[in-house]
Write a structure and sequence with these properties.
about 150 residues, mainly alpha, Four Helix Bundle (Hemerythrin (Met), subunit A), elongated, binds fe (ii) ion
Length: about 150
């Protein structure tokens, strides 16, 4: 079986996350219960995605290139993303639909960050890793639990 490219797989995951977030945003003023379900799916899938990168992909990239400039920037952006994620989690917990400011910041932060990964990180990783190494990376990713606290 051929192993998909990391770029293809992770770019699809970024797009899937964007869709959950759009659905939350579209519904939050009308049907908050339904909106909150999309928020929960978004938040847990995003947390898992961040863990994939921080524990598997960034270290692999550093190991292969001997450089950590790009990954340090991406890690700092993850911290920023986590802050807006936590702020929005709190809004959803309080059933507060007034979250456009936090949402704008999160969307903005995620947009730039995801584009950088899709442009600079994932394609390089695909070039640097052998098929066996890519397979191992996917196995490690699937071992990260779906429900990440
Ligand atoms: Fe990331
Ligand atoms: Fe990512």
């Amino acid at each position: 079986m051929t192993i998909p490219s990391l770029n293809e797989f992770l770019t699809k995951d970024h797009n899937r996350l964007d869709k959950f977030l759009e659905r939350f945003q579209e519904r939050k003023a009308g049907n908050f219960v339904e909106a909150a379900e999309f928020w929960t799916r978004f938040a847990s899938a995003l947390k898992r995605h961040l863990i994939w990168e921080e524990t598997i992909l960034f270290p692999l990239f550093e190991q292969k290139t001997g450089q950590s400039g790009l990954t340090d920037t991406l890690r700092a952006e993850h911290e920023e993303i986590r802050e807006w994620l936590a702020a929005l989690d709190e809004k959803v917990r309080q059933k507060d639909a007034e979250s456009d400011h936090e949402m704008d910041r999160l969307v903005n932060e995620l947009g730039g960050h995801n584009a950088r990964e899709e442009y600079a990180l994932y394609p390089q990783l695909d070039k640097l890793l052998s098929e066996a190494e890519r397979r191992t990376a996917f196995e490690a990713m699937s071992a990260v639990p779906e429900e990440t606290p």
